[in-house]
Amino acid sequence: MAAHEPAPNTASAPLHAVSASDLPRFLEQLGAPSAAFLRASGFSAKPGEMALIPGANGLDGAVIGVGAEASPWHFGAAPWALPAGTKWHLAGNGADPSEAVLGWRLGAYRWLRHKQQDRPSAELIPPPGTEMAVTIAEAVCAARDLINMPAAELDPQALAEAAAALAARHGGSAEIIAGPALEEGFPCMAAVGAGSPRAPHLAVLRWEGDAKGPLIALCGKGVCFDTGGLDLKPSAAMLRMKKDMGGAAVMLAVAEMVMRARLPLRLLVLIGAVENAISGSAMRPMDVLRTRKGLRVEIGNTDAEGRLVLCDLLQFAAEHSPNMILDAATLTGAARVALGPDLPALFSNNDALSEVLLSAGVAVQDPLWRLPLYEGYDFWLDSSYADLSNVSTKPMAGAVTAALFLRRFVPQSQPWAHLDVYAWNDTTRPGRPEGGEAQGARAIFKMLQDFWKGM
What does the pLDDT average to over 354-381? Predict the structure, then answer.
């Protein structure tokens, strides 16, 4: 029996993965009629290209093209390109089984809660040894679910409770802070949510894979909907603002991967869940807010609210002296102008941490791109009325100045990295359907798997 092929009674068809260089040999091994059919159809084994293999009784299998380097995206279109509802198993040794399972499951995902779906996807039976790929795919898809959920269904309390439920499923603990306790301990975050009837909630998750392991703090911006506040967004800019909690979803995906993999780490996960809305109690331009650190922040723009949420979370995380602090947020449009939708901007005060994150992103095809914490722009955050402003005095380098704002709340000696993510796929591509996306989650997990010991 060929490698990866299950027992004959599994009622699944073989899926052969073949590179262009191996195609001639593969065709020689097929029966003459099937080989002639593939030649006549023009199949050339380009990455992701698929063809059905006919047989005497109908369908004998299928073949999919793969590149010289393993990639999950080679398999990302297969669940919907192959016949609906069919089951498949990998045959031969032409594919990395974990990459195949990951790409297949990420590609099979669709957000269908409010849409009738009458066509099931094809299913790939995971070969033995691909359990981690299944875990990663399920964590990413859970994050996608949160991002895709309409804001009417995912308010700050629901997001905080989803985080707490995740911790409970994996033996962790969770505390949800709201009301007067939030206003006292996390005043800047509380001020962001003050304009909404749906009160802000902070979820604090703790988990120990090893009681003596390094402590990793994960902070996620969870703005369940962002109107921009009194500095109201135009309608086009508000259209996708249900995804403004994408940073929180990314960090919950990382936490799920770490907990299910039982990595020898300790986690402190902070999810700042708020809604930036408009009412008589909403924060106003030129208000001055108190932060948990004690710094006073003048509000130059109420639409720069994500950094106001994160600054209190970063301060709280720093008080626990973790080995590293990582945060993720859909923070600035400037990062998208600079890098486009597919490349999260990475800022870090630690070159070693930055390098291992970048390397991890390349390794798992979840890329990041480092931008500078340029000292020359730091004074752009100066305020005449408070310790600093939440926006720059200049209409340039918005992603840089946002990261510089966050850096004010991280001790200089504390390794820290900030990801400015888009958290969305504008169009459907193999393995990456239109909608919410947990950008950076797989890169962070890979780093925690392989590189944290060297930090």
Answer: 98
